[in-house]
Amino acid sequence: MPDLTILIVDDDAGDRKAIRRSLKAVRPDAAVFEANRAAQAFDFDAAVPDIVLLDHRLPGRSGLDILARLLSLWPRAGIVLMTGQGDEDIAKSAIQAGAVDYIGKRAITPERLDRLVSGAQDRAERRWKDRARQADLMSFSDVLVHDFKAPIRAVRALAEQIQDDVARGDMDEVRDCAQDLCQASAQMAELVDSLAAHIRHDREVEFKETLLTELIGRAETALSQEIAAGGAAVSRDFEDVMLHCSPPQVSQLLQNLLSNALKYRGEAPPRITISASLSDGGGAVVRVADNGIGVPEPFRRGIFDPFKRIPGRAHLPGTGLGLATCKKILDRHGGTIWCEAGAAGGAVFAFAMPRARLATAPPAELTCKRA
To answer: 53-57, 105-109, 130-134, 331-335 — which is least confidently predicted?
Structure first.
């Protein structure tokens, strides 16, 4: 399977050919795609590029003009601006606009291009991690300022009530308050555990090929008691695929999605179906469908933000971090996650993984559509 996906955005066919030839010499395993104008780059969906080699002069647009749009499409990509002539002002503007590097086309050689791509990957990854850490710090501050206030107030009030009840000798009230105190402290512990899990996925992890059925099995084992208690049934509808991933993280992702399907159930026992298919870009799309209460259309995007919960469901257990953690795991893998309406009610949570193959096919058989 390709170890790197590169998109060349350049209107000059000769330049694209020369760049592709140089890449082939130093990055033979890379999947290289081409776009000859801005609109074609915006519509590109064959894969998620790791590197974008962007020409500064495009028909009717400049590379600087479209750089922000490309970053919004692929926030983890390393974008390198190319131009026919070196210009320090353009280089400065490109870096300020979000490019990770800049090169004049006359300076492109296979060796230079190899170093450029490696550096662009490293800088793009560091930038992504810095932004993720900053977002986590904001999340922590929100929790400390807001989410912990209510349980702390409850614990304090219950402790004071227990003191009064002990002084009166009312042990029945003491036992009731102690039970409520345990519940409030358990909610605080759950919130801390969720925050810890959310942050843990920033660490460096080992990626390896793992069967989807194995990952689902891990998640089902972790939730075996909840599945049995709810009378739930989890079925699989796919030809097994091999994902290139961090097994503990993707198992956690599946566990979170299954847990939500069990939690947000309807009146009938939960019925959960997991399906999967290969995508044209050499990845896989996995869907977890349930027969629960569903997710209203206006909330299907925002529910992946930390601490965002659908109004009217505050009585259900949860911290508002489960789906945010799923998104973070997919970000770490270069994938995406979204929510759809179920064909017969309920919700479908789907996620795309960029590198996958049929379990019966050797790695060499994985191919990508290339320009």
So the answer is: 130-134
Residue 237 amino acid letter? D
Strands 208-211 and 241-245: antiparallel
User: Residue 282: which of 236, 239, 242, 332 has the closest Cα?
Assistant: 242
- Which residue from 309, 311, 322 is spatially nearest to 257, judged by alpha carbons? 322
Spatial neighbors of 88 by CB under 8 A, at least 6 apart, are: none
CB distance 183 to 157 below 8 Å? no
Long-range contacts of 117-125 (CB under 8 A, 24+ apart): 117/4, 117/6, 117/23, 117/27, 117/51, 117/78, 120/51, 120/78, 120/79, 120/80, 121/4, 121/50, 121/51, 121/78, 123/78, 124/50, 124/51, 124/76, 124/77, 124/78, 124/79, 124/100, 125/76
- 365: confidence class by pLDDT, cuts 50, 70, 90: very low
Give the C-alpha separation, 90 to 157, whole Å: 62
Helix (H, G, I), strand (E, B) or coil at 100: coil
Per-residue confidence (pLDDT) for residue 269, from 0 to 100: 93
Residue 340, pLDDT score? 92
